[in-house]
Every structure is written in C-alpha cells, then in structure tokens.
Design goal:
Arc Repressor Mutant, subunit A, three-stranded antiparallel β-sheet, alpha+beta
C-alpha cells in the first residue's frame, strides 16, 4: 500500500454520507429535487408536475426535509418548498452530468 497519508473521514461522518446518498437513491425523491431546482413549489403543484399523489409527495418531502435537502416557507396556509442550498443543486447537477457523459 502507498505510504501517502489518506484523509479518511471519521466513521460517523462516513455513515452520514452513506445515508445522504441513500436519499438520492429513490427516483421519486430525485424527481422532486429536479423540479425544485427550478424554483419553489407547494405540494399540490409538485404533485401535478411529478405525477404523484399529494400524500406521496408529502411523504417524500418529509424525508427530504429530514435530510436537510429541502426547506419550506410558509405563506398563509401553504408551504412552498425549495432546495435547501446550492450544495443540493450542485450534487444533482454533477450527478446528472456524470450519467450523461459518453
């Protein structure tokens, strides 16, 4: 093995990273993330765009919020969802670029 020093993250950070990548492993969640990359939407708008029921979208949004990938903004009775930050947009864009390479 090479004697170079390897900067391996601590076990708990590797676990957190693995959990994050699991979230990206679901097509429904990816659809929602791609759509939110274009701007914020409420659940009924997301439901229509991604072709899922409102309850299914709400379920996926809870997972995405829990993973800090999306955030919500309340406006009256509605909550508008958007990507949590530029990191999420970058992860999606780089993943898409990778799979579209030839």
């Amino acid at each position: 093995m090479n004697s170079k020093s390897i900067n391996l993250p601590e076990t708990d950070k590797l676990y957190d990273l693995a959990e994050l990548f699991k979230i990206f492993g679901d097509e429904s969640r990816l659809k929602i993330l791609f759509v939110l990359g274009d701007g914020e939407l409420c659940v009924d708008e997301l439901s229509e765009v991604v072709g899922m029921s409102q309850s299914a979208v709400s379920h996926q949004l809870r997972i995405l919020k829990g993973s800090r990938l999306v955030k919500g903004r309340r406006d009256g009775k509605r909550i508008y969802y958007s990507l949590a930050d530029d990191h999420v947009h970058s992860i999606i864009a780089q993943g898409r670029e990778h799979v579209e390479e030839e």
